[in-house]
Amino acid sequence: MTQIMILASIQNIILAGLTLVALGTGFAIVLLVASIKLKVIIDPKIEAIHEALPNIDCGACGFAGCGQYAKAVVDDPELLGKCAPGGPDTAAAVAGIMNIQISNGGKLVRPVIHCRGHAADKTFYAKYDGIPLCTAVNAAPNVQACKYGCMGYGDCVRSCKFDALHVDDRLATVDYVKCTGCGACAKACPRFLIEMVPFGQENMMTVACSSKESGKNTRAFCTVGCIACKMCTKKSELFTIDNNLARMDYEKYETSEDTEAAMEKCPTGVIVCRGKNAPADRQPGKKPKAKTA
C-alpha cells in the first residue's frame, strides 16, 4: 500500500512538472510570436542621428529631447539645423547621415540680454521682500521704476542647465564660454529681455536696453538706458529707432568704423559688445576700452 502511494506521488510530481514545462513552452511561444508581430522597426538613420546629437535634451529644437528630434528631422528634413547646442558641426553631421547638402554659412545662436543696468544704475521705488522670482516681482507694482529692465532675481539662471547665466548686482549676465544657445533663458524671462541672436562673429554688438519710454522718462530712472537720440542711426545704417528704442540688424552686422563710431558716440553707453572675448562695457560719455574684433 505504501509503495503504491509513493508511486502515485511520483506520478503526480512528474505530471505537474510536465504541465509546468508545457505551460512555460506555450507562454514562450506566445511571447515570441507577439514580439515578432508587435516589433517596432527603428530606422537606422534615427539611431545614427541620435548618436550625432549632443544628447542633453535641452529642448531648444522645440522637441522634448534629442530622441524625438532625431525622429522628427528624418520625417521632415526642413527641421535640420534646429539643434542650437550642436551648431553647424552637428547640422553637418546630421545632413551627412541623411545625405543632404547644406551650406557652411550657419551661425551659432546665443542669448543677448537687452539691459545693462546694475543696481546703482536704475531706480527702485520700494524694497521687495516677496517671493524671490522675477515672475513674482514683475507682477508686483511700483518696485522697479523701469518696467522693461532686468529685475535680477534669476529666473533665467535657474532655467539654465549649463551654469551659463549669473546675476551680478541685480543684472543677469551670460557666460558665453559655457553657453550652448539652448534658449531656455529666453523662455524663462517674464519681460522678454533675452533675445536669441545669430552670432556671425565671436563678439556681437547690441543695444542693451528694452525701454520703450521716451528719452526723458528713461533718463529719469536709468543712467544707461536708450534715450532714442538717433545718434547711432546717423553713424551706421545698421541701426534704426523703433518705438523710442534703438535696434540693430544682426544679420548684416560686421565690425566697421561706422558701428564703432555709433558705439563711441552713444551718450548713455547702451551700445555694447557681447561674446566670449567682448570688451568691458564703457561708462556713458567715455570711449570703449577695446575694439570689437
Give descriptors for this structure:
disordered C terminus; Alpha-Beta Plaits; 12% strand; 35% helix; 2 domains; alpha+beta; 293 residues; elongated
Molecular structure report:
This protein has 293 residues and is of the alpha+beta class. The protein folds into two domains: 44-98; 108-275, Alpha-Beta Plaits (2-Layer Sandwich), CATH 3.30.70. It is built from ten helices and eight strands. The strands form four sheets. A two-stranded antiparallel ribbon has the order 1-4. Strand 6 (239-242) and strand 7 form a beta hairpin. Helix 2 crosses helix 3 and helix 2 (44-52) packs antiparallel against helix 4. The protein is elongated. Mean pLDDT is 86; it is low at 286-293.
Brief rundown of the structure:
The chain is α+β, with helices and mostly antiparallel strands and 293 residues long.
The CATH class of the largest domain is identified as: Alpha Beta
Write out the strand line-up for the largest beta sheet, numbering strands in chain order: 1-4
The residue-averaged pLDDT reads: 86
Element order: H for helix, E for strand: HHHHEHHEEHEEHHEEHE
Topology, number of strands = 8
Q: In terms of topology, how is this protein built?
A:
Layout: H1 2-37, H2 44-52, H3 66-75, H4 87-98, E1 108-113, H5 134-139, H6 155-159, E2 165-167, E3 172-174, H7 184-188, E4 194-199, E5 203-207, H8 215-221, H9 231-235, E6 239-242, E7 245-248, H10 257-265, E8 271-275
Antiparallel strand pairs: 1-4, 2-3, 5-8, 6-7
Helix pairs in contact: 2-3, 2-4
